[in-house]
Amino acid sequence: MKSFDVMVLGAGMAGVSVAHALVERGRQVLLVDRQEPGEGTSYGNAGVIETDGFTPVTFPDDWRSLMRYALNRESEVHYHLKTLVRMAPWLAALRRHSQPDALVRYAEIMKPLILAAGTAHDHLAEQAGATGFYRETGWIKLFRDPASRKDAEAMMRDAYAAGTHCAEISKEAMAELEPHLRPDYHTALYFGGSRSVSSPGGVTNAIAQSVVANGGTFATGNAATLAWDTDNCWTVRTAAGPCRAPDAVIALGPWAKTLIERFGYRLPLEVKRGYHRHFVPSGNAGLSRPVVDMDNGFVITPMERGIRLTSGIEFAELDSAPTPVQMGRILPMAQALFPLDEPVEAEPWMGNRPCTPDSMPVLGRAPNHAGLWFSIGHGHWGFSLGPITGRLVAQAIVGETPDHPIDRLSATRFV
Which of 52, 133, 197, 242 has the most neighbouring CB atoms within 10 Å? Predict the structure, then answer.
C-alpha cells in the first residue's frame, strides 16, 4: 500500500488548490478524483475572479417575487417539485440567513477572503504557468428593469465600502467598451478590479499538473472507498492500488454530502445545478469581458470555445436527468443583448454547485475525526475562492496559523 502525508479527494478548483499549497509546504500529496482535474463543476462556471461578492444569494423578500418563482417559468430559477419539497428545511435556513444581521455577518467573514482571492490566483497561476488564461477585463452587470435600480445602488455602496473598483457606465461609454452589446438596459455597472479567464477547466487542470510536477501524485479513484484503518490512517482505493495517509481532505464539491454522512456529518449542503453552452458570435461581433444580466440570471462571456452562455439556478437532485429549460428561456434574451449565432455543442453542459444556506464554505478540521479536513460548500464562488481557501486549509493542516481565521467557517457552525 502506497503511503502519503495527505490525500486530497476531489480535483476541482478547491481540491487542486489545497493540494498545491500542501506540496509547496513539502508534503507528499495524493490527489484523487474519478475524472481528470478540471472536468467537473470547475469546468463550467463563468470564469470570473470576483472582488465584489459581498452579498450572498438570498431568499426573495417579497410575495410578488415568490409567486412569480412559484410558477416555475422564470429564467433565473427552475425547480423540480419533489426536490423543492425535500429542500424545505434548507430553504427556510436560507431565508434566515437572508436577514440583515446575517448579511452583515456574511460580509464581515467573507470580505477578507474575497479581497485576497486575486492575489491567491496570481500565485497559483504563476506557479502553474497558467497566466495566459487570465484577462484584466473586469466585468459588467446590467439591470434591465428600472425597479432594479435600488439593487444596483446597494451593490455600488457595498463595493465602495470595501474599496473595490465599481463605476456606473452610460450607454455612450458602453458603446466604447463593448461596441457589439445592444443597450437594452436601465443601469450598467463596471467592476474593473475583477478578472476573468478563458477556460476555468484549463486553469484547474494546469494547477493539478503543477502539483504533479512539484512532487505530488494524481490517481484516478473512488472517494466513496475512504476508510479509517487500524494504523490510524485514512485509506482509499485507486486505479494504482490502495493508498493511505494520516490526513485526508474532502474537497468533493457536490459529491461531498454523501461521503461525509457516512462519518456522521449531516451538514446542510444542497445542490444548485447550472447549465452552459457555447455559441459562435455572428459576423465580426466580439465580446471582451463577462456580462451579467442581473434581472434574468444569465452570463455571456468569451471563452476558448466561443461565447459561453450560462444559466441561472436549478433545484434538482444531483443524479437526476438534465432539464435545461432555462437555456431555452434565456437564449432569445441573450441574442437580443449580443449577436449569438450557432451553438458549438449539440447539447448544453450541466454542472452542480455545492451550497450552504449561509452561502459560506465549510473549511477546516472535521469535529469528530482525527486527520479529516473539509474544503467544501463554496457555492457560486468555488472558482474565485478555491486558491485562497485552499491555502488556508493547507496552513491549518501543517500547523501554521492561517493568513485569515477560518474558525467561523468550521463545520461546527452546523454540527
Answer: 197
Length of the chain: 415
pTM as predicted: 0.96
Tens of pLDDT, residue by residue over 19-49, are: 999 999 999 999 999 999 999 888 999 999 9
168 touches 182 (CB < 8 A): no
Where are the chain's structural domains? 1-53+97-134+197-269+356-415
Q: What CA–CA distance (Å, rounded) separates 405 from 99? A: 24
- What digits encode the pLDDT tens for the residues 55-112? 888 998 888 888 989 999 999 999 999 999 999 999 999 999 999 999 999 999 999 9
DSSP letter at 221 equals B
Residue of 398, 343, 323 whose CA lies nearest to 25: 398
Closest CA to 299 of 141, 134, 107, 96: 141
The rounded distance, in Å, linking the Cα atoms of 247 and 6 is 5
C-alpha cell at 217: 501524485
Per DSSP, the three-state class of 337 is helix
Residues 6 or more apart whose Cβ sits within 8 Å of residue 199:
47, 133, 303, 304
Among 321, 302, 320, 324, which residue's Cα sits nearest to residue 311?
324
pLDDT reported for residue 231: 81
Strand pairing category for 313-315 and 77-79: parallel
Burial track 374-412 (b if 16+ CB lie within 10 A, e otherwise): bbbbbbbbbbbbbbbbbbbbbbbbeeeebebebeebbbe
3-state secondary structure of 31: strand
Query: What one-character DSSP code corresponds to residue 67?
Result: H
CATH fold of the domain at 1-53+97-134+197-269+356-415? FAD/NAD(P)-binding domain (3.50.50)
